[in-house]
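Model it.
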Amino acid sequence: MNQKRMFNVRNVVLIGMFSALAAVLETLQIPVPFAPPFYKLDFAELPVLVGGFAMGPVPAMLIAVVKNLLKLLINGTSTFYVGEVANALGSMLLSVPAALIYRRHKTKKVAMAALAVSVVIAVIGAVFINCFLTIPTYAIAFGGMENIIAMGTAVNPAITNLYTFAIFAIVPFNLLKCSLNALVTVLVYKRISVILHAERPVNPEKASVKG
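Modeled.
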């Protein structure tokens, strides 16, 4: 997809719509019993994944960024902007590989394989993002790394340091979140795709051949 086609009016509108939907879905958060309270499940990655499948990896990246900008405009930040940066990076790690793989062969099997690969990449990426960016920032906000670890220990006694925090909190939380978003994407994408592509202009040459 060339740049002019990628940023036509239709795609710009869709990027805005998917970004707004993602920002709304991010406000509907569900706590999980095995992770500290600042980890909450949501389905904000669903519009990013659908947008990536429908338009490609670059629009997926834009949706990931714009949804966080909208969140900042609506709610501000309580994480010195680090949480929003980490969220955008995590969204890209989940959506961009899937979009890159899917655009080569647009079949359901390829879509499922692409999502499986992206979930693995996103979970691995989440470990590095959390351990080297998010958690150190939260440690400053909450008075030290020991307080963050203590929040993990409160829900799972096996969490005693950053290493066990990654194994017993970061990995299972992100695996659950990414897998659920990927699963719902598989279930709904084809139905949404029919609507998204319903009003595409018909190629005049193909129309004349048909006639």
